[in-house]
Amino acid sequence: MFITIIQGVHAVNDVAAFKDGSISGKVMDDALNVPLPYVNVIVKNDKNETVTGGISQDNGNFKITGVPEGTYTISIQYIGYKSVEKTVEISRKKSRINLGIILLKEDTAELDAVTVVAEVSTIQQKVDRKVITVGKDLTTSGATASDIMNNLPSVNIDQQSGNISLRGNQNVRVMVDGKLSNIPASQLLKQIPSTSIKSIELITNPSAKYNPEGMSGIINIILHKSTNIGFNGNFNIGLGYNEEPKFNSALDANYRNGKFNFYGSYNNNVSKNLNNGNLYRIDQDIRQSFSILENTKSNLFKVGVDFYLNDKHTVSMFTNQNIFEGWTKVNTRVDYFSASTFELQYIDSDKENTSQQYNLNYKFAINDKGHAIELEADYNQYDGDNYDFNTFTSSRPNFFQNNDTERNRVTLNLDYTNPLSDLEKLEFGLQARLFDNSIFYDSNAREVNANGQFIPTTTNFDYSRDIYSAYATYGKKYEKWSYQVGLRAETVEVASDAFKKDLDSQEEITTTFDNNYFEIYPSAFFTYTPSETHSYQLSYSRRVDRPGIGQVNPLPEWNTALISQFGNQELRPQFTNSIEFNYTKQLGKGSVTAGTFYRVIKDEIQQAISIDRSDYNRLILTNLNFDDTTAYGLELSTNYRPTKWWSINSSFDLYAQTQKSIGEIFTNGNPETATEDDIEQRVLEVDNVVWNFRVFNNFKVSKTLSLSAFGMYRGQNKSIQFEMEPMMMVNLGMRYSFLKGKANFSLNYNDIFNTMFAEFYSNNPLPQYGEFNWESQQISARLSYRFGGGKYKAKSRKQRDNDEKQGGGMF
User: Fold this and answer.
1) Which of 26, 161, 368, 712 has the smallest number of Cβ neighbours within 10 A?
2) Taking Cα atoms as reference points, which of 208, 64, 37 lies closest to residue 126?
3) With bands split at pLDDT 50, 70 and 90, how would you rate the model's confidence at 453?
4) How many beta carbons lie within 10 A of that of residue 288, not counting itself?
5) Longest CA pairwise span in the chain (Å)
6) Which residues partner with 586 through β-bridges?
7) How far apart, in whole angstroms, are the C-alpha atoms of residue 222 and residue 201?
8) What is the phi-psi region of residue 756: left when phi exceeds 0, alpha when psi lies from -120 to 50, beta otherwise?
């Protein structure tokens, strides 16, 4: 009797403690019969309380574990689709529930507009990237992709040059829909409207499938592409003003009928931008002041067609056409206070460039499980002309610089994907990248004859780089573990020729540099998910930073009265081994992601500073390879929704790196009295630790009105030449929706306290400090309207170098 009672107690306790149930299934599109990733699966008890939940994977599968005994309602929810609910019962005898294939039908009421856009932006930590879905709140922060970037974790935009950096490093590749462009990244980001962006991927440790360029990784901008049946589109227009006006507009549309989907877009940007600054050399008592006015006009066209021969064969083609023109006026004043004299320099610069891209893609779907072969050919051509005329009021002769650039890139890709099962995937491919760049430089800027006049010179610089590569990756998933390993092999052929001719003496000089090498780039990714609320990722990759054209071009990149910059034709690539660890915690009202990384950098590329031997007041900047170095960093980002009307996205990041370079200094401290013996070359070393903090708040006042507040603090940043003081900024914005959500009006006020400016100082090679200001305190307005009424989406083709399928996440 006693034993029976004890056994009964144990049985009761076992039943009460039973929490080992699981619910699984696969979510698919009812019309297209394709898997749907990132679908929300919510488990509710009989009191309609949420007990647990999860999301579907890339292949549409989901599995929720640790479900206690009881009766539950399973709600499968996805924006743009009708929700599906199923009732299940978990018991000791029936603890493993498989719902099978769940078909979701598109909600025609939600798809009246061309694109379904989330109200609030979200950040998801994937195995090898952060995926930021750009919601309506983030598009309020600015008119272009460049404006949005400063709101993203780990990303910074130089407000003067427009250069982008990731994790404190400018060695980053920028892609649009998984494709590179010959258009300079700073120009391209200002041409893409923020409302055209679907998501932004920060791929900090890419797999072997990706091109290995970029020490910091890849920023991939995914644009909206509608494939809805019928005629659909979007139009938006934006205005901004501080001291000069800025205007941009965009129109995109598609027409889908039967086997064809036609789409196109037009983006226009017209703006004037004003910069002011000064640089003061303390020991020499010299101040150089700058006033820079830039006027730019750009037009970007895209036209494409998808031809769906049948369920297995798809042919797609598109072309991008870019036209850019502008001028820049630079007024420079150099005050020599000790001599009570000054000189003026006026630079009038005209520039224009065109870029054409032609892309052809063929995809053969062997089955509907993702088994496919894809062939892609891409051709990109860039032509640019820059003309500078420099006028001096002093004894310096006037001079001109004319720079014509022709650039061609051909890329061929062959990719094979084979999901060996629901838990395994094999991928391999071949790629050829043929790059050719030719620069013609005509100037009288550098050498002076016996009469004090500049000698006219003409120079050609031809640079080619051909890369042939093959890659393979294999991934497998277990119940709580998953891994992916990969290897990429590349052979590279680099050839460059610099030709210089003195037009007076007809003397010719030719300098040749070749660099051929073979390298392999392994990658490995491991993920451990002990529960639906915890996830751990560990990854490793090897990457390369090949020198850019500006770094190897021996022609002058720019000249002022006190500084000139040249490239180094013999610069070699730098290689990086990177290891990264990330942890994600899902909260009831959001998520937290924490990560750390460590890099070992070989043959580091850094800027070197030397003194112009023809004028000791002038500095020469170039790039050299240095010894190995290391870098590390910490990152923390959160999404949190305290209430239904308030959401917060915030991030903190810290980076540290030791930078080495070579610099020259005056041992007597005075260039005016210095001789060659007073110039000493020294090894410069800088330990740089910089941190950034961002927070973005969105307040939903009503169904049609939202307010936003963004704050950013960027800590002190050291480089070989300068130490930058901290910068901070606060932005406010609002967004109003009308016409049943088809139209939106947004108003933004940036840098309301006027605290965003650059302040810097340096001791290399001379003690100096300076400050630059730009139009950071800007008011901008934007109006957008969506039209069309397509109800059903067609199949989208895969994006090259992009593991995320279209239609996933919040869209």
Assistant:
1) 161
2) 37
3) very low
4) 21
5) 121
6) 591
7) 8
8) beta
Choose among 248, 362, 378, 271: nearest CA to 320: 378
**Beta strand 96-104 pairing with 21-29:** parallel
Q: Which two tokens stand for residue 596?
A: 């750390």
Using CA atoms, how far apart are residues 682 and 666, in angstroms rounded to an integer? 11
In sequence order, which residues have a C-beta less than 8 Å from that of residue 347 and are 6 or more positions away?
A: 328, 329, 330, 332, 388, 389, 390, 391
CA 564 to chain CA centroid, nearest Å: 29
- 343-to-313, 337, 445, 548, 564 alpha-carbon distances in Å: 68, 11, 18, 34, 17
Share of the chain above pLDDT 90, in %: 35
| Residue 448 pLDDT | 46
72 pLDDT above the threshold of 70? yes
CA angle 288-568-397, nearest 5°? 40
Q: Which of 23-27, 158-162, 393-397, 795-799 has the highest mean pLDDT?
A: 23-27
Q: Which residue has the tokens 């014509």?
A: 404
Before 206, cis peptide (omega within 30)? no
Predicted confidence (pLDDT) at residue 803 exceeds the cutoff of 60? no
pLDDT band of residue 121 (cuts 50, 70, 90) is low
CB 624 within 8 A of CB 661: yes
What is the predicted pLDDT for the residue at 400? Answer: 81
CB-based contact 702:714 (threshold 8 Å): no
d(CA 326, CA 190): 14
Cα separation, 40 vs 102, whole angstroms? 13
- pTM equals 0.74
Taking only the tens place, the pLDDT of each residue in 135-146 is: 766 665 666 777
Please give the Cα distance from 23 to 692 (Å, whole number). 42
- Between 811 and 508, whose confidence is greater? 508
What is the residue-wise DSSP string for 471-535?
EEEEEEE-SSEEEEEEEEEEEEEEEEEEEEEETTT--EEEEEEEEEEEEEEEEEEEEEEEETTEE
Phi, psi of 2 (to 5 degrees): -65, -40
User: Tell me, what's the pLDDT at 721?
Assistant: 74
* Residue closest to 150 by CA, chosen among 759, 806, 751: 751
Q: Identity (one letter) of the amino acid at 552?
A: V
| Residue reference for tokens 């934006």 | 238
Look at residue 150 in the predicted model and tell me its pLDDT.
Answer: 74
Instruction: Give the CA distances from residue 101 to residues 26, 59, 61, in Å, rounded to whole numbers and listed in that order.
Output: 5, 12, 9
Predicted pLDDT of residue 2: 36
Amino acid at 131: V
Quote the CA–CA distance of 560 and 619 in Å, as a whole number. Answer: 10
Which among 691, 529, 651 has a CA at the least distance from the CA of 126?
A: 529
Mean pLDDT of the chain: 81
How many H helices and E strands in the chain? Answer: 5, 44
How many Å apart are CA 454 and CA 460, to the nearest integer? 19
| C-beta separation of 725 from 698 below 8 A | no
Q: Are 28 and 35 in contact (CB under 8 A)?
A: yes
Between CA 773 and CA 68 the distance in angstroms is 61
Rounded-to-integer distance, Cα 558 and Cα 64, Å: 60
d(CA 210, CA 178): 10
- Token digits for 121? 């932006």
Query: Which residue type sits at 516?
Result: N
DSSP-assigned beta bridge partners for residue 104: 29
Q: Which residues neighbour 11 within 8 Å (Cβ) at sequence distance 6 or greater?
A: none
